[in-house]
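Weekly modeling sync, notes
Attendees: S.R. (lead), two postdocs, one rotation student

Agenda item 3: backlog of single-chain predictions. S.R. asked that every request posted to the team notebook include the full sequence so nobody has to chase files. The rotation student volunteered to paste the first one in as an example of the format we agreed on. Action items at the bottom.

Example entry:
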Amino acid sequence: MEFPSKRIAKAVEELTRLPGIGPKTALRLALYLLRVPEQQAVALGQSLIDLRTHTRSCRRCFNVSDEELCRICANPSRREETVCLVADLRDLLAIERAGMFRGLYHVLGGLISPLDGIGPDRLQIDSLLVRLAREPVEELILALGSSPEADTTAFYVARRVEAERPTVRLSHLARGLPAGAELEYADELTLAQSFQLRTPYTTSPHSNDLP
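Predicted structure, as returned to the notebook:
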């Protein structure tokens, strides 16, 4: 398609880089932004700039944050004795939407996936073990989903915790979630029930022999 303006063409090109945005949707969004009051378009642009330049990782849980501690870690009403381990921010937000969990989180930053070149050293696993040693954590909930990568990651983390922090109780979400499902797509009721019905997580009797 030949655009009447190189600036529209550039806007469409950049918008199509976003997940789920095709050329038609990108053009519709670009034309919409062209029609709205300038202040609204500028505010959108500034919010995206602020998102990139002023957000950081929480030094405690590695959630996205505006300050050193994210709003969840800084909330004194959250229960420190229970930590929920999630793969990324999308899963954390899905759990928060369910409104069932009132503990803290630890964000791994992904899942172990050898085919994608992601090993344990690229995730926030060592920082988790340090945190479990320093904080009064009694239970670690493995909320990583039910994909093969999630199962591998949960098993690896569980073995490390059992070997290095044996006083921490391990649990995982009830299997009310479809096999292979991502937490971010689960409805709030199913996710809430999965937390309520969570069960202990154990590895084999010889799991302390780490690879």
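Discussion: group reviewed the output briefly. The radius of gyration is 21 Å.
Action items: rotation student to repeat for the remaining queue; S.R. to check formatting next week.
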